[in-house]
């Protein structure tokens, strides 16, 4: 399947995308993961992106489009892709539209995960993420804790709080979402692509997405 996952930070896009990859082999493409790996590796891209990310601001559209033009044409995307955290602005959505025409592909659906703000805030402050770039399993200290010593159940690397999960950065990320990304819900509604899902259970969300793309 070829879908875009929309939703505020902490809405569950990453968790749901990981579950859907196991379903039909579509690849999860998280621009956030790509950028965090670039920061860790100290690459040119990482150096350009780091400041924006730590402040909870968006990385400039042209950097993101350079990444995505290349990524969407890699062979593993042939089976489908789950876009997690991209597009994030109207210019990115317009550029994606042009890119998909160029590579002759169409989106199946745009899934809008609609989660109340108090749930989002609680999830983001209790979230832990595996620090191994090849794993990045997502934990929650209340509902899905890592091992008692704070390491990842899957690979053993430390599960850590992300640099942008301080209260200040979270507040800024939510503001940025409302201002820059929420307008995409209507953008894709006009294209007849948006399906809004309000469930809080990842399993139920995954079921509803499977039905929506059939
Ligand atoms: P995420 O893991 O999706 O919450 O992304 C973490 C951070 O990476 C965001 O707060 C932005 O600074 C940056 N980022 C990720 N995806 C994008 C995007 N599509 N456009 C601009 N910035 C992005």
Strand count: 8
Helix content: 40-55%
| Amount of beta strand | 5-15%
Give me the strand/helix succession: EHEHHHEHEHEEEHHEH
Number of helices: 9
Query: Bound compounds, please?
Result: adenosine monophosphate
- Using the coordinates above, name the CATH class: Alpha Beta
Which strand order do you get reading across the main beta sheet? Answer: 2-3-1-4-8
CATH topology: Rossmann fold
Query: For the residues shown, what is the average pLDDT?
Result: 94
Supply the number of structural domains: 1
Largest β sheet strand count, sense and barrel closure: 5 strands, parallel
Q: Quick one: overall form?
A: globular
List keywords for this structure.
single chain, 49% helix, Rossmann fold, three-stranded antiparallel sheet, globular, binds adenosine monophosphate, 214 residues, 14% strand, alpha/beta
Describe the fold and architecture.
There is one protein chain. The radius of gyration is 16 Å and the shape is globular. It has one domain: 3-Layer(aba) Sandwich (Rossmann fold). It is of the alpha/beta class. 49% of the residues lie in helices and 14% in strands. A hairpin with a 7-residue loop joins β5 (127-130) and β6. The strands form two sheets. A five-stranded parallel beta sheet has the order 2-3-1-4-8, sandwiched between helices. The protein has a three-stranded antiparallel beta sheet with strand order 6-5-7. It has nine helices and eight strands. It starts with a strand and ends with a helix. Bound molecules: adenosine monophosphate. Adenosine monophosphate (AMP) binds at residues 9, 31-32, 35, 52-53, 56-59, 64, 85-86, 88, 92, 164, 173.
